[in-house]
Structure formats: C-alpha cells, structure tokens
Design brief:
Elements (H helix, E strand, L loop, with lengths): L1 H34 L8 H12 L19 H12 L6 E6 L6 H10 L18 E4 L6 H9 L8 E6 L2 H4 L7 E3 L5 H12 L14 H12 L3 H11 L6 H9 L1 H7 L4 H12 L3 H9 L9 E2 H11 L11 H14 L3 E3 L4 E4 L9 E4 L17 E4 L6 H8 L7 E3 L20 E3 L20 E3 L7 E2 L11 E3 L8 E2 L11 E6 L2 H6 L8 E5 L6 H9 L6 E5 L6 E2 L12 E5 L1 E2 L16 E5 L8 H4 L7 E5 L6 E4 L9 E5 L6 E4 L9 E5 L19 E5 L3 H8 L3 H4 L4 E4 L1
Parallel strand pairs: 1-3, 1-4, 2-3, 8-9, 9-10, 10-11, 11-12, 12-14, 13-15, 14-16, 16-17, 17-18, 18-20, 19-21, 20-22, 22-23, 23-25, 24-26, 25-27, 27-28, 28-29
Antiparallel strand pairs: 5-7, 6-7
Helix pairs in contact: 7-8, 7-9, 8-10, 11-12, 14-15
Length: about 725
Amino acid sequence: MKEIESEFEIMQAYISKLKQVKARLQSLTIMKDRYGITVEGLRGASSRHTIIRQTYLSDASYLNDDDYGLIIGNEDEAKKLTQCINDEEEERAVVSVWGMGGSAKTTLVSSIYRKREVRTSIAVPGSHDKRYLIVLDDMWNRDSWLFFDRAFVKNICGSRVIITSRIEAVASIAQQNHTIRIGLLSQRESWKLFSQKAFSKLAKETSTYPQGLVQWANKILEKCQGLPLAIVAIGSLLSYREMEEQEWRLFYNQLNWQLTNNPELNWVSSVLKLSLNDLPSHLRNCFLYCGLFPEDYQMRRKWIIRLWVAEGFVEDRGTEITLEEVAEEYLKELSQRSLIQVTERMNLDVREDVGAVANRVSVHNGGQVYQPGLSSQNLRSFLLFDKCVPIHWINTASSNFKLLRVLCLRYSHLEDIPDTITGLFNLHYLDFSRTKVKKVPDSIARLKKLQTLHLRFAQLRELPSEITMLTSLRHLSVSNDLYGTSVSGNISNLKNLQTLREVKANKYMVKSLGYLTQLRSLGITGVIESYNTDLWDSIRKMTVLTKLAVATPGGDQVLNLQNLRAHKNLEKFYLTGKLAKGVPFPVTDGFQKLKVLIMRWSKLTEDPLSSLCQMVNLVYLNLHCAYDGESLAFCSGWFPKLKQLYLGNLENLSSIQIMDGAISNLAYLELHELGNLKNVPEGLKHLRLLQHFYVRKMPGEFSEKLEGSSRGSVRHIANIECM
C-alpha cells in the first residue's frame, strides 16, 4: 500500500511539472508572436524531416515479433549488451548501440530485454530506490540527452539507460566501454538469415534448396550488402512466391523498382533515407554526389574529396586549413553517421540509397547512351565509366559542356585531347588517367581555373611548359612508373600545389621544388647522385609533407640519405634504388607518424630492423630486393602496430627470427622468392593475430616443412596459401 502511495506521489509531482512546462511554452509562444521572432528549424526541410521520422519510427516497427533471427551475426554484441545491463556497477550507466539504419539495433535491444536474465522490476525513472531500465530508441542529436539526463534520476541501484542511434557522436554519450557498434553481416551470416526467411515454408529437415534458386539468392544478397533489414524484408516477401527460378530471376531484375514501388518493400528505402533527410545541406550535396558512381563501386578517398572541392561543395574556412582538410572532416562525419564506410585501403563504400544529382551525368557500362543537347550547356559534372564509348562521341559531347567544372574520362580510348576540352574555361577537374593520351596540347594554358589534372597510367612522357601557367593547380599526377614524366618550364610558379606525382628529376627542378611549400604528396623519379643535396634541401622546406616517393633511374646511381631530415608529418615513405654505403637512412624521433615504409633495391648490407623498429607507429613494411644479409631478427617489443609485412627477393636471406612479443599485431605476412630460406620461422607460433600467410615461389623444402614438420607453428593461421 505504501509503495502505491509513493508512486502516486511521484506521478503527481510529474503532472505538476508538466503543467509548469505547458504554461511556460504558452508564454513563450505569446512572446514569439508579439515580437515577430522566427525560430530556425521549425519550418521547411527540418519540419518535414521531423514528420518523416514520426511516420517511420524505427526499423523494428516493421518486423514481426518472431524475427529473433536478426541476432545472427551479432552474437558478440548481444553478449556485451547483456553484460552492460547486468554488470555489478551500481551507479546509473548509459549504454549505446549504434550503426546504420536497418542494421537491427532496435531489434537487438528488444530481443535482449525479452530474455529472462535481464528482466527486472521497472520503476518510474524518478524513483530513488528502485532499479530501472529505459530505452531511448533512434536518438538523432546529443542535445536531447541534456533533458533526459536531468529527468532520469542518478540512483545507485544499477539502473541503465540504453540509447540506439545511427550517429557516432550521439553514441559517445555512453562510457567508452559501454558503446556497442552494430556492423553489417558477412556473406555466410547473410545467407543464414535469408534462408530462414525465404525458405521458411520448406520442411525443416531438408538440407538442400530448390534447384536454380541459389544463384539468384546470392545475387539478391549482393544487393542487400549485409543489411539485416533488407535481407529480412526481401526474404519474407520471396517466401510467399513460387519457388521457381524464373520467378526469382524476374524479381531480381526488377529489384530497384520493387524497393521503390512495392508497398511491402518501399518502407525499407524510407527507413534508410531518414539518415539522408537529417543531413545538413553541405553534407547532403557531398553524399548525393556519390550517386554518380556505379553501384558497388569502391571510390578512392582522395578522388572523391578532390571532386567535392572542384564542385565547390566544400566550405572555405581560411588559410589555416585547406579545402581538402575540410572535406576530410565531411568524410569523417558521413562515416560517423553510418552513411559510408572507409575501408583499410582508403576506399569508400556507400551504405545508403543515393538519389540523382541535378546537372551532373555519369555514363556506366551497359547504361543508356547520354545524348548531349541544349541542356548540356548547364552541365556541371561529366564522369565516364564506360570504356567502349566512341571517341567521336566524346569530341561531340564535350563541345556542348560550356559550364562544366568536372570532366572525368578515365579508361576511355582517347589518344589526343580534343581542342574543345581546352576551351572549357570553367573546368576545375580534368582526368585522363588510364587513357592512351600521349601528348598534352599547349592550349592547356587556357584552363586558368583548373585545380586537378590527372594523367596517371596515360602514355605521355613530357608535359609542355604551359602547364606551369596553371597557377590554380592543387593536384598534378602523371605517370606511375620509374621513368616519370618530364616537366619543362618553371615549376616554382605552381605554389598552390599539394600533390605532384610522378615527375622526372632534373637539376633545375630539384632546386625549384623548394618553393612548393604546400606539397602534401611528392613523387619524383630519375634522381641521380648529383641531385641528392639539392633535392633533400628542397624537401626539408616542405613542412606539411605526408607522402614521399623517391626513385633513382637504376644502374649504379645511388641515393645518399645522410642529408635527409625527419619530417614530423610524414606518413608514407617509398624508396626505390640503391642506398649509399648500404645502410638505411637515419631514423630519429621525427618519423613517429610514419605508417607505411616501402624499400626496393636498396641493397642494404646491415640488418635494417634494429634501426627501423624505432618507427613505433609503422603499420605496413615492404622490403623488396632491399637487403643482402643472411638473417633478419624481430626482437620482443619491436613494431608493436605493424599489421602487414612483405619480404621479397632477398637472395641471401636464410633465417628469420621472431621473438615472443615482436610484431604482435601482425595480421598479414607474405614471403616471396626467398631462395635461401629453407626453414619455416619457428617464431610464427607467437603471432596469434596472424590471419593471412602467403608463400610465393619459395624453395620446395620450405613448402614441404610448412605442410609437414612445421605445421604446429602455423596451425592457428586461418588462411595459408602456398604457390
């Protein structure tokens, strides 16, 4: 009886507070009308977004109560959530579960709550002496938490508040060890979930599926990209259709239409588009631009950033930060909102449905042929992804693009750059990578606004002096081989350059490079011994350099690195050519940010590891024809962050020692053509995180021991390939 009275008093207190809030709101409304105050965000798009959110509450709203199968692939996350709820911490704690829309966040939380072991007496959150469990589903901003934080009493009864969100910044409200990210399902997990839904009417004891359906099921799952919401929705719909190959083939061919128009599926797109509707305008433009790329296309991070800059999507925040750095922040925020995924190789996967972009066109393989006309005069971007487009069509089409800012003709069969292209005065981005272009015309000087010029893997060996008149250039990338591309003219004019790759050295250039103090990435080939002093003097002035590639023309030419001074911002370093005196470059504390090091044909005579191990943040190490010694020793504590190691063509190497505690985070190891290495390194047994071990062109004795007497040292490695 006393408990009822206590709860009644609490409710009365809440009612009183609500009346006060209502009165205050009425007062504010009167004042707003009286003084003509306009509140941003209550009209237009934001209001529309709020209505959409109210209409489509969460992904779990559309799922049946028996969709327990969505726990597939999230077993570890479910276990952690249960532990966070039931641990012995007495103070009120916040737990967050976050991931992209449709990843089954709400379903996971609901399924855990239904379990008997997390059931507990649920009291009104204002109670000071009872444990409570509150779920705030689909929270979109951190500001909302300020109200809830005050409303939910901070008792010491083990109470928990669970937040689900699509946004990492919102999830960070929780303590770090109480944050759970929900990812996408693997191919195996996707198939298991899909088969539970699509083949639910088959007899449980059957172990085979109808002939001809498996290939179409796999194609459908590729489209779902591991998203549980899409897998369950499509699988459930197919379970009511005929189990015939023709039926499933027709469904697959119409899948995009089905997702938009079928009332049983169009809610899936609506749930996913909530994330898009919540984007501010500058991020919306950047994200929608990704829709120009082919489906499932992996975009290079730097590529899309330069396109955003060329389009004018990126805010200018002054001289302290570059447009590219601002765009990096945009990219990070899109990732934190679970809209894109940045992979380890700095590629991007778009994780949401992307619509069309006005005044922008991309031509894909097998797509409809774009017919240029009067509307082409307003076109801002044109991206070509079809290798088979005729050259005469490109010439005709480009003459119509009067206001074009972005022109990407990668992979086309162009051999000559049409005069019409150098007449596009508004071009900011021009890309002829992987074409057959052999010459850049002098008329390139007309493109005064050009910021990015890509010619990588093209067939030219020289750039005209007129290229140095393009003073707006920020990124100039040419050939991608050891020969390099010659640049005549005074390159010191290009003071806005941030990227210069791969140019051929000459005595004037190596001195002029010192004026390019904004360079972030430099690749220079054909460096002969007499250029060394001037080159390193110039490089020393590039204080923001993060990527450096230096190569000799081969032969007896050497790189003398004694004048090399450490760059505090350098992250990637590529050295190709014989090093003077056969010793590695001096390693000091200035290389603390270095993550990638590749050394080729260095001809070192001393074990370089004792020196290189001082680069404690190294993630990738590649030694190819770099060392003439007989043994390499990885000592305990060395290379604590190294994840990938490649050792190739080290002719005299006969011993690799790996101590316990060395390269402890290594996940990928490749040994290639080590002719004198006959024994499998026993220390491989210490590398408990090693997942991939590739053996290429190794001695037969090594391969035999790998499969025989040394099998115990590599038994823990999941993927071993011997070729």
